[in-house]
Amino acid sequence: MIKVDNEISLHPATLSDADEMYALVDANRKHLGRWLPWVESLRSVGDERRWLRQRAGMDASSDEEAWLIRYQGATVGAIGLIYDAPNNGAEVGYWLTEATQGHGIVTRSCRTLLGYAFMVRSVHRLQLRAASENVRSVAVAERLGFTFEGVQREALYTAKGYQDAKVYSMLVSEWEQRTD
Ligand SMILES: CC(C)(COP(=O)(O)OP(=O)(O)OC[C@H]1O[C@@H](n2cnc3c(N)ncnc32)[C@H](O)[C@@H]1OP(=O)(O)O)[C@@H](O)C(=O)NCCC(=O)NCCS
Predict the structure, then answer these.
(1) Domains detected in the chain
(2) Which residues make beta-bridge pairs with 77?
(3) Ligand 1: which of 40, 110, 137, 157 to mutate, judged by most atoms within 8 Å of the beta carbon?
């Protein structure tokens, strides 16, 4: 468990979370499917279990980690890191239920996860990609002080078809010099 603050904690996702996670995604299918490519193909608790099984068996040498986000005691979303080990890189991804947006939950969770990625996992460059039209996710990147690098054309395939992706990054040296 990683404590973010008095309201938020991050819990490594395990197989026993499958029912809860699937129910959250299913109840927020339209909200999430607009931006996240994997939502369309996640169609049952069995699919959720298969996804979690890959992560539940992971150890320190694995290339992906996922955490449930708990806010005021309830699970409200998830956040994860996909590692690019040869380059000491990682990409962060996240989602929240529609109803729990607007409280800074993901910004606060990401800020804590940056420390974990840079200090515990020795990441050199952390990447964040968001669909260009995903105003809320782009705002998270900018609020956290990520640097905009450019646009990947039609790089994301979502319920709305192919979408351009804005690429942001933060280097460990920038994180060390942060002022917030
Ligand atoms: C992307 C997503 C996680 C952003 O959610 P969000 O609630 O806007 O982001 P945060 O949790 O960081 O909250 C920021 C909001 O809380 C407010 N806030 C309140 N307290 C805050 C605090 N302590 N710190 C930061 N922001 C705070 C901010 O002002 C902002 O409000 P605004 O939208 O009115 O400007 C959410 O929209 C989502 O899940 N979308 C669907 C899936 C998705 O797109 N995932 C990302 C793919 S790249």
Answers:
(1) 2-176 (3.40.630.30)
(2) 69, 96
(3) 137
**Tens-digit pLDDT string for the chain (180 aa):** 999 999 999 999 999 999 999 999 999 999 999 999 889 899 999 999 988 887 766 655 568 899 999 999 999 999 999 999 999 999 999 999 999 999 999 999 999 999 999 999 999 999 999 999 999 999 999 999 999 999 999 999 888 899 999 999 999 999 999 877
Cβ 127 under 6 angstroms from ligand 1: no
DSSP bridge partners of 162 = 157
Atom 21 of ligand 1, nearest CA residue:
104
The answer to whether 129 touches 155, Cβ cutoff 8 Å, is yes
Angstrom distance (rounded) from CA 174 to CA 125:
10
Would you state the structure tokens that stand for residue 38, as one six-digit string? 């994997």
The finding on whether 107 has its CB within 6 A of some atom of ligand 1 is yes
Residues near 19 by beta carbon (within 8 Å), at least 6 away in sequence: 45, 48
Amino acid present at 179: T
* pTM summary value: 0.94
CB 156 within 8 A of CB 163: yes
